[in-house]
Design goal:
The complex is a heterodimer.
Chain A (H helix, E strand, L loop, with lengths): L1 H9 L22 E6 L3 H6 L9 E6 L18 E2 L7 E5 L3 E3 L2 E3 L2 E9 L3 E7 L15 E8 L1 E16 L3 E18 L1
Antiparallel strand pairs in A: 1-2, 2-4, 3-7, 4-7, 5-6, 7-8, 8-9, 10-11
Chain B lengths: L1 H17 L35 E6 L3 H6 L9 E6 L27 E5 L3 E3 L2 E3 L2 E9 L3 E7 L14 E8 L1 E17 L2 E19 L2
The chains are: A mainly beta, B mainly beta.
């Protein structure tokens, strides 16, 4: 089933007619976009009237697949700023003021980049939103940087994943791909 | 490209054979996506990518790419975040998507539309901000509804939060659009939101004021 899903992600729509319309239709990307919320699954809880705390944040990112490749240190090079996914740079939005690394972050939309190395990553919150990749990354627009240790996990994650988990002071943003896991603490 | 089409064809036919649920899923399990085909990685809380992947469109089209290339100075005017189900050989309108019932315009979460500047649709003024967009399809026309119930899963609409609605005639295409598709086209302040799926095409003209 997993294989089928991967194949499906690879498949490009062949049946969309380009002659019917003048607009170039967006194809489905093989690195599909996804969204994670904190509280987790907030939209489902909301329609079930099961919300116990307000929406605090969400992250919108694209999910590249490992596809047998060596990711960290090769496909994603050490010492370079990475968009933390594929396509558009990863967007994180806070619906209330939060604290990261002791610094107050005003609610709003930000871009989240990562400068990766073998044993640690620097996550970078940057003010320049709605942008493709990390090609025009501008350090002058940084809001905060956090150094985080790399945790090596035994399970190999095929699709780059982000998920929030509850913590004592708020929530952690977990980032996992290949056998690497990063935990970003966010105080709410 | 031929190989892609071949793979895509094979996969689509495989999906057709493997298709266990022919009816739209109407129940929601807490903490799970409502597409039954979505599975977690065994022993892990990380999900695999959804069968109806999320996608994002901007107006001006491809805004993030244009920004990267230095081709824009102003901010974007609008963007839509939506999920993209596929026909998988099913009958869509009047069957999977029922006539006269609200439909989330996609899959999973409600479709989100954000106006970064004030806009006019059918002589109604829309303030900058974020909304959800759903539709009530009929055979020859759709009613598109702008609603304030943000960050909600798309299976239940809160009609009391409806803000405005627009009636749009349905155009018929000759060929099937496999993936539910939204696109902006247009010229500067005059945009059109194009919605395509199966044999149906909808155009919603949007005029931006700034």
């Amino acid at each position: 089933m997993n294989k089928l899903l991967i194949f499906f992600c690879l498949a490009i729509i062949s049946s969309v007619s380009f002659s019917q319309t003048t607009v170039k239709l967006p194809e489905v990307d093989k690195s599909t976009m996804d969204i994670s919320y904190y509280p987790n699954n907030y939209p489902i809880l909301k329609i079930q009237n099961k919300v116990t705390e307000p929406l605090a944040m969400r992250v919108i990112y694209s999910r590249p697949l490992k596809q047998g490749r060596k990711i960290f240190g090769e496909l994603v090079e050490y010492g370079k700023v990475w968009r933390l996914g594929a396509n558009e740079a990863t967007e994180i939005e806070f619906f209330k003021d939060v604290k990261i690394n002791g610094k107050k972050i005003t609610k709003g939309r930000y871009t989240l980049y990562a400068l990766i190395n073998e044993t640690s990553w620097t996550l970078i919150l940057n003010k320049d939103t709605d942008i493709w990749g990390a090609f025009k990354y501008d350090a002058k627009k940084d809001v905060v940087r956090v150094d985080l240790p790399v945790e090596n996990i035994t399970e190999s994650i095929e699709a780059m994943s982000m998920v929030f988990e509850k913590s004592a002071t708020g929530a952690n943003l977990i980032i996992a791909w290949e056998q690497v896991k990063i935990t970003l603490p966010i105080s709410l | 490209m031929k190989k892609f089409i071949l793979i895509s064809g094979i996969v689509i036919s495989l999906m057709g054979c493997n298709q266990e649920e022919k009816k739209p899923v109407t129940t929601v399990t807490p903490g799970k996506k409502d597409t039954a085909t979505v599975a977690s990685i065994p022993g892990s809380h990380y999900t695999v990518p959804d069968l109806s992947p999320l996608d994002i469109i901007y107006y001006p089209s491809d805004y993030p790419l244009k920004k990267m290339s230095g081709n824009v100075t102003a901010g974007p005017l609008a963007r839509i975040i939506y999920s993209r189900p596929q026909t998988q050989k099913r009958n869509i309108f009047g069957a999977l998507v029922k006539y006269n019932e609200p439909w989330r315009l996609g899959a999973n979460e409600s479709t989100e539309i954000e106006f970064f500047s004030a806009a006019t649709i059918q002589n109604k003024t829309i303030k900058p901000g974020r909304y959800i967009l759903y539709c009530i399809p009929q055979e020859t026309k759709w009613t598109l509804v702008l609603n304030a119930n943000l960050y909600s899963w798309g299976l239940k609409q809160d009609r009391q939060k409806d803000l405005m609605q627009f009636e749009i005639p349905v155009e018929k295409n000759n060929t099937v659009t496999e993936y539910f598709t939204m696109a902006f086209e247009g010229n500067e302040k005059n945009a059109e939101l194009i919605i395509l799926w199966d044999l149906v095409k909808i155009r919603l003209p949007i005029k931006f004021q700034k």
